[in-house]
Amino acid sequence: MIDKSLPCGRKNAGSNTVSAQVGGRAAAAGRRVVHMASAMLLPLATLLLVGRSATAQLQFESPPINYNAATTDDPIAKLQSKIESGEVTLKYDDQHGYLPSVLKNLDIPFSSQMLVFSKTSFQLRRIAPWSPRAVYFGDDTYIGWVQDGEVVEVSTVDPHQGAIFYSLKQQETPTPKFVRDRGQCLSCHASSRTAGVPGHLVRSVYTDRFGFPMLGSRTYKTDHTSPLSQRWGGWYVSGTHGKQQHMGNIIIQAGEEPDTVDLARGANITDLSKLVDVRPYLSPTSDIVALMVVEHQSQMQNYITRASFETRSALHYDQMMNKALERPMSHRSDTTKRRLKAVCDRLVDYMLFVGEYQLEAPIKGVSTFAKEFSAKGLRDSKGRSLRDLDLQHRLMKYPCSYQIYSEAFDALPQPAAEQVYRRLHTVLTGGDQSEKYAHLTADDRQAILEILRDTKPNLPDYWR
């Protein structure tokens, strides 16, 4: 099952809600699956400004973050502005509503399609193994679509505010309007699973034959560090991966126990039409490479948001204390220095794929996603890009996240950006040879350094 980069939880179709762990009743099974994710979280009003650990929840509803009150400049806000000015017209079709037009205007390829059959959207009555939800993504936006659904579900990344959640009604109108969610989605999308900030996550859980997640069994948040054996429960997966096994394509039948299920029956499937009717969808695939990329990307975005929020909160606290103690406003406390170092070090480690699961066999998708993804890469003088895929032993050929080019990364507060660039440079130039960076060979470090020098504007002078 997945809690993906999409909204969650509310039953109002006009609100933006997609990927919560939700409950429901399987009539044939006669049992209730309880919504677990929201029970793990605190209401926004009780969030604590602690910020000293990777899982601590930050107070982002008040200054200096002002999550709901601040004006956003995310891709959906920009698209809505173009719609209202008449610069963009969304086209509606009878089968998919606004979906194809939204994807086109956001430059999101059909090949990014991933199919999730667990009931993890507020439109859960329309989701099942025989009618999965489709999720599409670009570098900063995620789109969810359900057959005969009431809305198109959207999550995007604002450079300053992190994940922002929207919905778009599937009703033809002269001026379609994306409606922003005002807090309900955060019941699932602002927790330790999203680095304590409004963010995205991919989850994996065993699913019964009706699509209900079996929450009494193991459930996993997945990213590039996760073993393949813990990934993609509740997803369809098309592609080959050798003898490695994953939880995808597996439906737990009556009388089966998840702990003893044979994962081999969901392995190396290249034709999903044998499992589900793919004709209603924009693509016949749920590409394994797309799934691997989105796992890395979703958490990378969370770490960037965390670094931004943590830095702004720490500096705001220092300013208040400096004023109260009549210290120079430029004074930075030791506590703030430690907070900045910790959050930026975590960001750099994830960016450099520390702890990445090493593949035991090559991965190969069945769509054009891998080719289209790599083609978007900025290339250095030797033709190399941080979007070049490896898929033999690891995800990326040059293990440094392409999200370093994102607007959110560029919008990091100056103290955080300085800390990240300094730390990244230290590792890439060999100044830190500790064990956790052993996966980076001297050639890897040099290649990443050269690629960034050629392709990343505004690097600090000491990088040149």
Q: Which regions are unreliable across 5 or more consecutive residues at pLDDT < 50?
A: 4-55
Order of helices and strands: EEHHEEEEEEHEEEHHHHHH
Structural class, by secondary structure, is: alpha+beta
Proportion of helical residues: 25-40%
How far apart the termini lie comes to 45 Å
Q: Helix segment count?
A: 9
Q: Mind telling me the C-alpha Rg? A: 22 Å
Global geometry: globular
What fraction strand? 5-15%
Q: Quick check: average pLDDT?
A: 87
> Main sheet?
7 strands, antiparallel
Cross-sheet strand order for the largest sheet: 8-7-6-5-4-3-11
Number of strands: 11
Kindly describe this structure.
The protein has 464 residues and is α+β, with helices and mostly antiparallel strands. The protein has a domain at 292-463. It has helices spanning 75-85, 99-105, 186-189, 288-325, 334-351, 369-375, 407-410, 414-428, 442-455, and strands spanning 24-26, 31-33, 114-116, 133-137, 141-145, 151-158, 162-169, 178-180, 202-205, 219-222, 235-236. The strands form 3 sheets. A 7-stranded antiparallel beta sheet has the order 8-7-6-5-4-3-11, sandwiched between helices. The protein has a two-stranded antiparallel sheet with strand order 1-2. A two-stranded antiparallel ribbon has the order 9-10. The protein is globular. Residues 4-55 have low confidence and may be disordered.
